[in-house]
Structure formats: C-alpha cells, structure tokens
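JOB MANIFEST
job_type = single_chain_structure
chain_count = 1
residues = 529
[input]
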Amino acid sequence: MFKLGRWTKCLFVCVLLFGLLPSWNAGLAAAEGQAPDMEWERQIEGTVRLIDVQQLRNGGYTSMGAGKEGEVYLDRTDAQGNKQWSKTVTLSENGKNVTVESVQHTRDGGYIVGGTIPSYHWRYRGYYIAKMDGNGEIQWKVVDDSGAYGTFHMIRETNDGGFIYVEFTESLNAGFFSTTAVKLDASGKKEWTKVLGGGRWVSPDVAAKSVRQTADGGYLVGGYKGDSFSIWKLGATGEIEWNQLYPVRGGYAVPASDGGYAIAGIGANGENVIIKTDNSGAMQWTKTWNGGQAVSLDIAKDGGYLIGTNQGAVMTDSNALTLWSYSATDLSKAISTADGGAVLVRSPNTIVKLAGQSAPPDARLKLDSMDYSLVAGQTIDTVLTFVYGNGQTNVTRVGAYSIADPAIASVDTSGNITGLMPGQTVLTATYNGLQAKADVYIYSGGTQNGMKFDSSAYSVIVGQSLDTVVSAVYAGQTSIVTGQAAYSIGDPSVVTIDSTGVITGLKRGVTVLTATYNGMKATAEAYVY
C-alpha cells in the first residue's frame, strides 16, 4: 500500500482542513464537525447575574449567581433543565450587605460562597465567606478584615473537605497592594496564607484570580503580573513550587490530561491564544485563532478543551484541533458536561445546554493496515478513518493512540509509530468512543525487512488467470512466501486471488492486490481488460 510521507500527509491534511474552515487561521488547526444540537435553554427570572453552573451527580444542574446587593441566588434543575428548586438568600453582617463574587456547589450537596463586605472605613472592604447546606441555610460564616480595599476573586473546595480562596488587597492611602491564597479547614478556620505578590504602585500589578486543586494535592493559581498571565504552582501546604509568565492577557488555566497545564487568553494583537505547558510550566506549544475573545477554559470529557469566547464555544482535542464550534452572543462561560456536551452561560442570566456528540449506531473505526512492520529506529505513519453509513472521515489527527508494550514501540499524538526494540505489540487507536487495533512488528535494525510482489502491476483479460510471486526479506535473507502469504483484493468484483497467489480477471477495471506475511505487507495493481 502506498503510504504518504509524514510531511506530505501533514501538508495534505492542513490544506484540506483550511479549505473546509476558512474562518480559522492556520494557528489553530481545524477539522470541525457538525455543531452540537441545543437540548434546552432557560432564562432565570429577575435581576440575577449568573456566576457558575455545575452538573450534579444525578445528571441535573445547579445554577449559582448574585441578585441584588447582598443576595446569592441558588437553584437546581433536572437533566432537561426543568427547575426543581430555587432560593435567594440575603447575606449581611452588622447591617452591611455582602457583594457575592464566587459560589461553588460542594460535595456534601451544599454551597460555599465568597465575597466582600464594607469594613469600618467607607473605602475599605473585608472578605466574607459562608458555608451553606443543600437548602441554602448558613452553617458557618467567616468575616476577615482586609485592613484595606479587598477584592475577592474565587473560592474552591479542597479534597480534605476544606477550602482555598484567592484575593487582592490594595491600600489607596498607603499606596501598596498584595495578592494572597488562603487555605481554610472544613469549619472555616484559617490554616495558612501565602502571599503571591505585591508592592508599591510603581511595581507591576500582580493579582491571583483563580484557584483549583491539582492531582498531586497542590494548587494551580492563575492571575497576572503586569501584562502577562501568571501561574503559581503551590504545594499542598502553600509553598510556591514554581511561577511562570505567559504572553497572554485575561488568561484561564486548567490542568491538562497529561499532567501539564493549558492556558487560554488574548494575545498582543487581540487574537485568541491557547498554550500547552508541561508539568513544570514550560511552554510546549502555542496555537492562535480569531473570533471573539476568550472568557473561559474547561477540560472536556475526552481530555480535550472547551474554550468559551464572548461569541461562542469551541471544542478541541488535546492538541487544540477544533472538533466543533457553536455561536452564542454574550457568552460569559462554557462548562463541559459528562455526556461530552456543554453548558453555556450567556450574560446575564441565560443557560444553554448543548448535546453531547456520539457515534452513529453503524459507525466504526479502522486503521489503514491490520499490522505494521518496521525496524528498530524506524518511524512510519498510520491513517485512522472514521466510517459511518456511506461516508468516512480521516480522523488521524484527532484520534488517541496507545501501545500495549511501550518498550517495543512508541506512538505519538499523530499516530506515527517508532520501533524501539525487536518484538511484537499492539497499537490501539480511539476516537469518539470507538477503537481500532493493529499488530506492530519490530525487527532488528541494520537490514530493512519487507516483502514484495514480482511485479508492481499485473494485466489480464476477463477470464484469464496469472501466477504471482511474493518474496519476503528478513534479516538479509530473501524467501519465496507466495504459498504462506494471506491475500486480499481492493475490489473483488474486478479480480480474484487464491491462496497460491493466482489472480483471475472477472470484469474490466483496476484494483489493488495486498499480500501480508509475518507482519509485513506488499501491494500491486491489477488491470483487467
């Protein structure tokens, strides 16, 4: 079988995709499928500013937001968006109302709320945190005096049942500022505080704006330093393990499926940027695209990324290859759902549920060969095809790949196999919930193994038979394997081939003969007149 070279195949795929989707630039590769269907849409009554939506374990959703000054709004719906319960709670302290900035649904079915509250001086604002049960009743609250003008950014539950939040404090009189991460236990008691940055007004602005726990028990904090996006990676007790800056504004950071991190933000020329880093924050690749401005970033069900912009949502794979996009004006956040779909939050109080995309019932996945042969040190490409009904799509660049024995061979994210040591293993390709497998044979280096027909093309007339000869080269030795090889025909209505390699013409046309033996493969054309 003729196989495209790696550079040639990449050029072909990129040109094809660019032609299909001219609205995306060459930075963010695009292989966009059909936009998902809208399952339902709902608008929350009143003057609610939605802050977040989370999916519940029963498949339903809880929406959280801020109402009038001092009010936090909570509701729950079923999986179809039908409201089951809602409540508005007024939060105040000493007659002063709380400005709600962050809300999260907690594992016990309740909520954690964070915001600011006017302090003893009219220009000062302290921090207010309240833990609520599932009915919106306050279980405990904490008021922390900032001593200056405080801005509360985000609070999140931690794996130990406690909480962590990030804030920014500035003193207009003294001319200083600081930004910190604060860890609370399950009862709201402060466990530690870590100052992440600060200075006088002549210093570059520094602010931590988001926080989430990482798989190693530490924390990923995102924010900015001057005009750059900043990530602080904290250990479990708040120590700064590393801090890196990235050339985007208004960024959003999430842990990636491979242990690194992904960042979405706005570049110097107003373009959208997605950056992938390793687990130490070092940049691995950057992709750009035009269309709106990034407002959120979430990890998708399959390890890809769901990027929200103020003009809609974009779903990509783990390499930022576009899978689909959906237009939605005034989008403030896009949230990935368990079915592979998304919830879109449109400012100020509209929620849109997009359906997950699943494979058609008759869909299947296939590789371009049932087995691959190469020598140690050699790299070959593969082609992965998604077959559905009468159609098929090349999904090589969006598939996921694995090797059963990584000591024998490796495979990269584009499906390229590299032989490492002699042996046999299995390649598995996955896409859209489907799998395809192929055997991989690695031979000793130094001599190229392979097999071939005795001609690259055969010609017969209808009804005529013709012998073929197939030879195999292994460890420098050539053997005739015509009787041991297995055969197949690209179009069996044109010609047949028996187990001894004899072909017989059936009707006019041209097709391809394929012979396989011990993991090796040979092809030739057959012409019938």
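[summary]
The chain has a mean pLDDT of 87.
The first strand starts at residue 38 and ends at 43.
exit_status = 0
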